[in-house]
Amino acid sequence: MSLCGYAVGALGGLLFMRREKLAAAFSFGVAAISALCGLLGALLFLGGGAAAPSWQGELLPPLIPYIQLGVRLDGLGAFFLLVVSLLGCAISIYSLDYVKGFFGRRNVGVLGAFFNALLLVTTLTVVANGIWLFLIAWELMALTGYCLVSFEYEKSETRRAGVLFFVMSHIDAACIILGFLLLFQASGDYSFDSLRGVGAKMSAGKRDAAFVLFMLGFGIKAGVVPMHIWLPEAHPVAPSNVSAIMSSVLIKIGIYGLARVCFDFLGPPVWWWGVTVLVAGTVSAVLGVLYALMEHDLKRLLAYHSIENIGIILMGLGAALEFLYFKHPLLAALSLVAGMYHTINHASFKGLLFLGAGAVVQSTHTRNMEEMGGLAKRMPDTAFYFLIGAVAISALPPLNGFISEWLTYQALLRGFGATESLWRLVFPLSGAMLALTGALAAVCFVKAFGITFLAQPRSDAARNAREAAPSMRVGMLVLTAACVLLAFFPTAVVRLLDPLTQQLTGEHISGQLSLGDGLVLASLSEKAGTVSTVGMVLMGVCLLPIPFVLWLVLGRKAKTRLGPTWDCGQRGLTPKMEYTATGFSKPIRMIFKALFRPRRDTQREYDFSPYFATTVRFESHIEEVFVQRFYRPLRILIVRVSRRIRALQAGGVHAYLLYIFITLLLLLIFAL
Amino acid sequence: MSLNPPLLVAQTVLLLLLAPLVTGFIKKGKARLQNRRGAPVWQTYLDLHKFLRKDMVISEHASWVFSLAPYVEFLTALSAGLLVPMVTAQAPMGLFGGVLALVGLLALGRFFLALGGLDPGSAFGGMGSSREMTIAAIAEPAMMLAIFTLAIPAGSTSLSQIVLASQEPGWKFLDPSHALAFIGMFIVLLAETGRVPVDNPATHLELTMIHEAMLLEYSGRYLALIEWGASIKQLVLMTLLANIFFPIGLAAKTTMATFGLGLLYLMGKLALLAIAVVLVETTNAKLRLFRVPDLLGAAFMLSLLALVSTFLFR
Asked: Given A381, A434, B15, B90, which residue has the most CB atoms within 10 angstroms?
């Protein structure tokens, strides 16, 4: 049903292209309603419990032989459908007013149409029940994604990012197609039903090859380090509602693909798969947050955090694969719950943060944090929502990021006892790196929130900023509510995950995870550790009267007045004296100097002494080590090889005929 | 696991009242080692009393975040304290979270305090926030690994369970893994509570300060809350260190007698730990900011070795 809705929305957007107000209202309105349908459908399905029958159907009558376009909803698909629909709904509401910023400048109808198309194909990807539909939807996702990234095509930065996104999308599609070909070779059928557990029929080498191909393909989509380079380029340049959908939903489809293939198709895992995924996750998490810290472009910062969070999700998935190898399905289910819980958490808070950033960028017309400041007074609602998102993404209690990281810690701690081999040290080390990641994320979001929203405005644009339009605030409110609900009712969320774990590991563990009427989350047993966010909030509320009672007793006469900030006796503080985003992360930059290799350039002009400079110019630049060491040489190599090959294509018909002849000859010889 | 209201109230009161005393004790100890008479040990109570009665000046640039921060700092420190077994093996609020929640709550307090430091728009506040967050970030992995060293053999992240597991007869007092993890954790304690090799709690308005720089714009009752919160946090971390590494004297049941005995043991352990802190503070100079990562890196390596030695010796 929601599929039809998106299709109508897309068509409507195109239809009303010339009348932008109508087009905007229609396409995003329809998108919101269809997403709501999808949300309800997924909730109903998952709420049915572990015994929920999977819903199956044919999308189109089989027009062409061999090409089946079947759709099927199962535990895994339904969970991702929930993620897609939740975000689709909130972001569509947000877009209603957000796109008004483009009126008169841009064709909003096209934006609406592509936005709907993107939601449509994303939904199709997670419900596809065959290689054909999956791959078609996958390719269309890349295509619509490209169109949306390049929406503001007149900026060269945007075009560059769009092309990079396109190229990387095709590399990942190529890897995935090759992987599916390997699977198809063993199963002989295109439908996913025949692929289930097909890994058992394949030779070890082919299974490993398929795993590597899928890991590469889905890893590029998900933005796993070192295949992530497109992500921080492409996500920030798109319109903010698109950035939100890309960062919170699109990269999750990579996770969906990986989970689908690794747990459903490839059969019992080999020992190094789990370790690979776990290590890739850990590296992504730490590097993602470190590069995020170096950013002062608000949206790029958020994009790097997506890499970090994908890493955390992969930690859960990797641990689950490893537990399956150790034949601990219960622990595998726990790790899977941790990873999937983090998936929906990241979707909700990253969507929220991108929407908040979108509101800020729209009213200040810049993405540079150094030109913001003081927005908490000018945009109080947006500031509040952004703060909630910031606390959630920093994995601080009592919000949802903390819950899923808590589950991840529990899974990783159990990993140490699950085996006797030396590899078990990987688990606590990943745990320590998860701690580092969480703490660095907190640093980064103190910076992101503090520099953007607090203190004095650093530019006129920030000084004149206005609160976001109503529908934008409603969109953010929906996601804020999602963050809070996901945090306060973890046991309910875990119950929704039962069909998924039942399907992929054969265990459903929500009963073992919940205690005390579902208000306390336990780590499989009460003894192994418990946590309750509701409990923590209650505790805080109960303790809150203490300071007030003391003031009533002691400080009744004390007054509060406003005064200037202490300026060391100089005449007034200016915004130029405030701490900057670059300055804030300087200690981290110095500590991890070996990784960042910052390039600094200082020029001074002075008259008589260098201590009395007339002008100082300072430049600092950081290039990612992967771009520098791997992608740039690779690009140069490709260009060089292409130049050589160009000689073949001289343009003469005779030469081409000769090529065809030689090819034919070779094929014949090969066939004989 | 059920809630125990008298214990809950007793521990809350204990946290509130004991924390300033520990701070005063350390100050007094430092003064004595420097051949000064020093302020009386209850000076911190008098300071808090004074701050609570004073007028407040709030920066005109500050927003609502500035006023929110002291409450968050105070409440998170106090809540974290209720998750720790202090005099009984059973923490009063242990059901609501174990050691991970404790670390998380303290981090939440720090997060808001750092925002409060940035809010008035003074360069001091920004500098303090930046440094405090950085140091906490690099201290965190060391702390987690040290905690894992204890949590993995106990098979639990619940502090009460960790304490119960180490009270069992198989527990060795000077197990290499325990000793290494203890040293690692002690260094983290120094960093987290802003003690000398990392930060100097005695300086004001100097470029070397970290924690104090964040608080520069706070006054009156907000300052009282923050100072009190900081000393509760210090007490919580010291209690954690004392009780999970030396779980002697923790009462299994809550009767008046066992409670009293547990309290005596707790005071004794805290006094020893405070003396250790005083000795470290007196015999060391403050490190340059960019030397601090080396120290915390050492703590990380010690904790890692502790974990590896659990692997080797069991």
From this structure: A434
